[in-house]
Amino acid sequence: MKNGTHILTLPNGYHLWSHTENAGQSDKMIAVHGGPGDTHESFESFPAEIPGAEITCYDQLGSWYSDQPDFSDPKVAERTLKIDYFVDELEQVRRQLGYEQFTLLGYSWGGMIALEYALKHPEHLTKLIIVGMADRDADFTDRMKEEVDKVLTKDEAEYVFLEAKKGEFDDALFNQFMGKFYRDYYTRFSQSQTKHAVDTTNYQLADLMMGRNPFQTSGVMAGWTVEKRVSEIHTPTLILIGDQDMIPVKRAQAMVKQLPHGKLAIIPDATHVSIRDNPEFFFEQVNNFLTESDTNIQN
């Protein structure tokens, strides 16, 4: 694949935005973004920081740069609102890129896709990198409760928990307090982030896939887990989480013990956005992992 932006037309007729850099390197990497409904922009620094790999990122269906169908249409929902759809979409991206063997990196929700892909298509993977995700969706929402308790006052935390339980997600005070939490958490170590004149997140897709309650997943992603299947992933795997990530360190440690060829790196001074919180440590771990032999990767 040549350097630059390419529009990929899938067999189902949808179009995905993709971008490739470092073309010609023998090692290939596909990076899968978070969300659902976010974009590739977390990976914009990857080509410069990982010069030894040809890197392709893409926007999933529904994300800002790709096709955005109306997911409230029952026919669209039936075809696309499922985790398997996004796993199969990744496989279609791989085919169009012509990557027979590649490293797969998944961030947050993209980590869920990557784990499922590793179980379904291990023959195409040389290495697997999971950033800010474990093997159960409940870990993320349980940790959210703990973080909110740390940031908000007791009265504020009690209020948002009560409103969330009632499903009052449009309540002004609920959103004011949650806004206070998000500002503290996501800018704790870094103010650097992509800014737009408009919000590029597809909230329709996010709401339908995981619901609006930050403390309990609903929708398609509710109850997701591969906990009992992690041991089937024989691809050399690196788990990367921030020391203050939404994924608990103990959960990541338990997960990596189940991986036959797993390695865990805990990123200091980093939240769920570890890529921007501590890029020096993050990319050091990624580059070391990409260059070390499989025999050196073990839990």
Number of strands: 8
Order of helices and strands: EEEHEHHEHEHHHHEHEHH
Helix content: 25-40%
Quaternary status of these chains? single chain
Indicate the overall shape: globular
Query: Largest beta sheet, briefly?
Result: 8 strands, mixed
Based on CA atoms alone, the radius of gyration comes out at 19 Å
Uncertain runs are: none
Q: On the 0-100 scale, what is the average pLDDT? A: 95
CATH architecture: 3-Layer(aba) Sandwich
Helix run count:
11
Q: Tell me the strand percentage band.
A: 15-25%
Query: In CATH terms, what is the fold-level topology?
Result: Rossmann fold
Looking at CATH, the homologous superfamily is Alpha/Beta hydrolase fold, catalytic domain
Domain AB hydrolase-1: 30-278
GO molecular function: aminopeptidase activity
GO cellular component, one term: membrane
Family: Belongs to the peptidase S33 family.
Give a short synopsis of this structure.
InterPro entries: AB_hydrolase_1, AB_hydrolase_fold, AB_hydrolase_sf, Peptidase_S33, Pro_imino_pep. This is Proline iminopeptidase. The chain has a single domain (4-137, 194-296), classed as Alpha/Beta hydrolase fold, catalytic domain (Rossmann fold, 3-Layer(aba) Sandwich).
